[in-house]
Fold these 4 entries.
Entry 1:
Amino acid sequence: MVLGDNKGEPNKRAFRKLVKSGQVHACIAFAVDTPVGWCCIGPRQTFPRLERVKALQTKWDENTWSVVCFYIRAGFRHQGVATRLLKSAVLLARTLGAKRLEGYPVQPSRSGSGEIPAAFAWTGVQELFKRQRFVNISLPESTRDIYVKTFRHTKR
């Protein structure tokens, strides 16, 4: 089952099945009782496409997690929902033992407008990761950005 091959309801059902099976995790944002956004996160090895895309390959291990997509319902965009979802994803990854969390935001267009249409921003935008103190480890010539946050786990 691969997310992204479908749109709308089939993708929602596939995502729900992955989350329920424990293969991936999700942070979900609600406005009262209505879901208005989600963020998909999990151990990097659960997302094999990351290894098939040359621009997204990194030196990772079993303690590396990835934030692979965001969805914010129209009408709730530009209101900080993605920021709150990423904060929750960081906390979730750290709580579940991740030592490193990667994100793959889309780069702004080279035209200089800076505005990225929602349909293309499903992996997040650079500013979102920068605000959460992720570090850009991308090579200058790369067509994709890779942002990383490293956790120091303290013994309790």
Entry 2:
Amino acid sequence: MGLTIIDVGILIGFFDASDAHHLGAKSELSNARQRGDQIAIPASALAEALVSPARYGESSVTGVLEFLERLPLGVTELGIQTAVVAARLRARHGQKVKLPDALVIATAIQNGADVLITTDRGWPPKSELGFEGNLISL
């Protein structure tokens, strides 16, 4: 039983059957559940995922949040140390790691995640990021 952190693209892909990452997101979330992992998303990434539902009104946001509780999907808060790690990642990697991505990576690092799943293939290798777990890029 470990910890799997997901990036916003995984959640978006999971919800949208027409998304190019839909099948991969479903598969990786299923794998995490089969391993007995706790699955979590950084609060910053959850905010990104809720932008589109928010355009449709509060009932859409509520529907997504209720679904996430049934998944179950935990939400990790942004603390000072995570913010510092994210800032360092962003400073070190420039345009290869945008701030939203740096926050996801930093969350995985700070929480000792076993697995980090993203749809972003442009990230530097995990050894350059300082992430010691399994990095899965769909």
Entry 3:
Amino acid sequence: MIPISDDVPSRSVPFVTIGLIAANVVVFLYQASLGMSDDPHTARVAEAFVTEFGAIPCRLSGSCTVADEFPHPAITIFTAMFLHGGLFHVGGNMLYLWIFGNNVEDTLGHGRFLLFYLASGVAAAFAQTLVHPDSAVPMIGASGAVSGVLGAYLFLFPYARVHVLLIFGFFIRPVHVPAIIVLGFWIVVQFLNGLITVSASAHGRVEAGGIAWFAHIGGFLAGIVLLFLMRSRRGGRL
């Protein structure tokens, strides 16, 4: 299922959501420009950029060191949120943020929403690090922070209708599905894939890398908790 829109109207202009999307797109374009050449040196520069500013679990857990300690591992948690592995990666994250972020921003207010988004990303990074503390694979992407947005949206608007594209091979059909089904299915998929990754890693079949499933799970759960901690008693905005 690919979400297209929802039926919950925005009560205000989602400045923070728009700003986050713009920042992610600008950083992605810069990141992509580093590798736009057949020169092997250019490819190494692009790879070094991700290694330097991506959040590496073993650096966060202190189980490994790198020759260059700049930036500090704590800083990379935030820089990693704006890096992506490709067009579909950034496109998918920004699509989810655009559809679901504006309504969460409406509820929390602009200032609280920005703090909520960043805190969800931090929780996501630590969740992945907790499960794979020795991994040297950089974590990049806004997925963890966006997962927090999805968790909050699910609790705020469980019965909102989400316009999605159902795709089965060559069969494509737009339908309206309750948010509780769309986002419930999403978190179940993350959890199942996370279990598969842990099982495969435990048996030495794969290195902890690829998609950071537990970052998604951690961000989602953090979003639910943060919603209740940060939402004002009257549900107002800053």
Entry 4:
Amino acid sequence: MTVDRVLEAVDMLNNFNPVLRFLAKNILRIKPGYYRLLSNFELEVNHEGHTYSENGTTLHEVVLFKSAE
């Protein structure tokens, strides 16, 4: 799988109220982010002597929590 492009990236701290934003960033040391990624895939399956291949594009929606440092 290869990520072709990032369709959307949002710093979720901007959506928090000021108290939660302070706690997340300074106490918990996390910075949540929301990402939408578009990727291409190639799939090949061998089953009982038959080979099946497929390729296409898929959309991923991911929330990541990374260090606020």
